[in-house]
Fold each of these.
Amino acid sequence: MIPVISALRISTVSLYPIRGSDGEEPGKLPLLCLHGGPGALHDYLEPLGALADTGRRVIFYDQLGCGKSWIERPAEFWIVELFVAEVGAVRDALGLDRIHLFGSSWGGMLAMEYALTKPAGLASLVLSSSPASIPVWAEEANRLRHELPAEVQRVLDEHEAAGTTDSPEYEEATMEFYKRHVCRLDPWPDYVLRTFAGLEEHPDVYFTMQGPNEFVITGTLRDWDITGRLGEIDVPTLITAGEYDEFTPRQAAALQQGIPGSELVTLENCSHMQFAEEPERYCALVAGFLDRVEQG
């Protein structure tokens, strides 16, 4: 059962309107964006705001439990069904009868869960580095972890064995993984730093559903797997991945093969946040896909 709460009254929505209008140009549809985490702020998706220049609104919101939508609730409150319902609540509040839906990482998992409910007016999906199976994600993340320098692995192993994953030394070692496979920009842009700062301030949702980090998955999502249901997704779908992504080729291939007619594009020299690492290239890719969908 979904916890009784109005997602609509809590979620904070940010709109990137097209110039001189509060709607779309003829033939265009708005793009609703779902951030990752779970429990990360939407800020790191800000480069996608440039898509508003293609004649459509680009809409972001902080999901319940993070950023400006933070609320304190017991662990059992944070379930997938809550966030699926929240997508519908945001659509209803903004009158978004027909949309394109973008999801990054967990946001793409959420987008797929939402698509499986067969909502009216869903024109397409854009899935950025979004796995269909957390058990496979964990296997691949730990494979990448074992490619880290030996000293970094030693620090990770020792603190995990001691239960001190909140220590500064452990967090510093974890960051070596993130710099290789999450965001390869140096330094990280302000909008990425804001997302990580917000996650550190309110880690409840991430810890409950994911765990301490990207490769130690102890949360409620640890057995999540919709691989067997991917064939039920019946809208045009673009899948994006990075060459150095923690969303590895094994995972990308499974997603592309599972969703009928889906497209897969892997961006060279990028990792998990391709839209931050190559914003112009990424936005052009997504804009082209959305245009093709709208043109039938």
Amino acid sequence: MDTRGKSNVKFRNKVNETLVRHKASFDQLNAALQTILTELQAIRTTQFTQAVPHDINPFAQESSSH
């Protein structure tokens, strides 16, 4: 194999190694995002099951005198 062929093989190997690292990083990121999505969906479900009635203002301050 000539020098050019060896250089091409080294380059391809480096590119493939980089792609493998990037894929692993994307897989980790995807797993983290999936976990976050699952947690957000659980929060949404909890909020819907504990919904505040529409006639109660959750932002109104409680006071003993009106």
Amino acid sequence: MAAVIPNDVYFNTIAELTARLKAKEFKSEDLSRAFAERLVQLGPRYNALALPLPLDARRKGKAIDQDIKLDRWRSPLQGIPYGAKDLLSYKGHLTAWGAKPYAAQVFDYSATVIDKLDAAGAVLTGKLAMVELAGGGGYRFASASATGPGLNPWDTSRWSGGSSSGSAAAVAAGLVTFALGSETSGSIVTPASYCGVTALRPTYGLVSRHGAMALSWTLDKIGPLARSVEDCGRILQVIAGSDGKDPGSAGTSFYYTPQYARPLKELKVGYAAVDFTDRAEESARAAFQAALAAIRETGVTLVETKLPSFPYGPILSTILAAEQASSFEPLITSGRVDELADAAQIAGLKASLELPAKDYLKAIRLRRLIQEEFRKLFTQVDVLLAPGRSGPASKLDQPLDRGGFQPPSGTPVGLQGIVQAGNLAGLPALVLPCGFADNMPVALQVVGAPFSENLLLAIGREFQARTDWHKRRPPEIG
């Protein structure tokens, strides 16, 4: 007879679940079954589920029970249920990339990150919904997905964010312990900020993208969305590393070593005060001010900082347009692009085929200058700090091309453009839930130099030791 899994388990961290498995409070098979059933039951409530995998999950859980019986522990992720964004291939199963034209697509191999998690004993319970083609071409409405608009567990009249919409919603609602998402220009930072979950966008090349849909091969990154900073560190240690199957692989591993972190009192944190006042939505300012105070209390030195002056948005858009045109040329030229859900996205993909090569090459050269300027900036400060987004999640019916909140004319720019700049320079970013506005989560992002993940995690760990925003649950969820 299957064990009854207590409700609090669905919001446990990785360490808490591991302790309960080691104490034999329940079997791994029962835990896997319970999470898989919960994902099937509640995933559609948030349009978060792309493909349920209950049989695979139970089979994996049963195998892990044999290891536990022998007291064989392969990794900190052993027996931990998770979900993967549906742009990651899973051998022999549908991988639709959130888009109708690929609804029947099946690969005969799994993405490297899924293979690594499988070897570590993590339990894949389902594929999670996403914006179609990870937003390639640009989209105007949250409904740009074959599974419908991502609904935020904190308020289903609001968006869960794109393009890793299902990943963020599933973690926030306790449908998985952690999830894999991807980012090209904000697709981890935005949904994590909107849904109130901790997340990590790794340095470009640190995590293999073999088996992931290619939107922009010089910008795409895969990272975790989870319950806490500690969880993100444990997950990154498993999924990072060299992979000859990914031409963009940095050829380096990652070991989560918080015990060797620099004392926070030695750190300089670059920020712009205006980001937490006039450039933030009015309802979010109190939360951001309190979060900034909590960061200051960790002992770091806050330093007013400016980003290097570049048109980050147009540069990123040019690179993305050229590379997505190459990736999706067969879809566009075949006419099947017209099957996508969002008219703006269809038009954007078609237009990308007309981008002149000289514009792409110029953008590539400018990106190299951006990377050099950030190298110089990180000799003056250790990390950069800004809101994840300027306010809470947008309403579902709000057109996304309206640009959201606009500060008064003449307001200093602050660190505006940090998401585009960070992606262009390949920088890691940690998302930290930091409070509420209009009863919705808001978050900070901490951005560092390439391969500074341990430093970001050390700052985030201390912040979460002083606050409990990452432990909050959406209302009316068991």
Amino acid sequence: MRSAERTTVVAEAERVLRQNWRQGECDGTPYSYTEPSPHRYPWQWYWDSCFAAIVWRRTDPAKARAELESLLAAQRPDGFIGHTIFWHRPVSLLRLAFYNVASRTSPQTGTIQPPLLAWAWRIAVGDPAEEPRIGAQMDWLAANRDLEGDGLLWILQPDESGLDASPRFEPVWGWRSNGRLGFPLLVQRNRRLGFDARRVRERGHPVLCEALVNTMWSLSLQALGRPSATPALVERLWDERRGLFIDEAQPGGARSIRRYWRGPTWVNSAWMVWLGMRRLGYEAEAQRLADNLIATVAREGLREYYDPRTGKGLGAKDFAWSALIAEMADPNYERP
């Protein structure tokens, strides 16, 4: 049964990636990317593309490279790459209040996602140091989001973390957090401030030094051959007594903690935990995590997320980053 489930989820991952693949041209610039989910998420999302490229490398390395190069094709001259890129049509009026754009005609959002590109390029393509545009993005992040000069990045909205509506952000942004009624007001305020983290903090509004963003930042720094931010991350956010990383908000230095996650299971999060467990030698625990998730995906398909108690698939269907299940189902895959 386990073997059949593994075969099923690998085939389903490949099917969804092929189905969700989009190609075209925008103002003379060619693009190729994997839609996160047909109809529900039609544009190119930054870290979704990084995860998709990691899986694409298994069967079509050219698509893996094209996916990441499309992110670079959207890069501004100063090195910035946005959270979402609107290649073939602008953000809809319905979503405008919730999307971090200067105007409806903006080609991309003015906010970031966890900076995964250099690490994903290392896994899926090759040495990111050979692509100067990746270094330029890292330089922009260091110049604009390292607000304390210690090498760590700060975010100005919960969705920049990739965790969106996690309850961990409610002590910082309160009723303006993602998924709460006031979130459009947070977007509107940050839009007025040009999505500039320094301006946001100078006006007395919260910014956050968040653990996941800085973990991804450290992985990308190392992939690029630059010094890791891990020592600074441990120094600033690690709480030895609790055995947890605790995010820090500024101004004021407030710390917030929620020990238990009351939300869904995401395949990308599980994949990263699985990687860490294997590298630390917890092979049996990693295998148990993988087996349970493989069984869930074989039954429910590639969904946006899953109920952590029942395994019921929730959110968008045919969700591309859930194709990472193929990495757990067939970890020793080698392309012919």
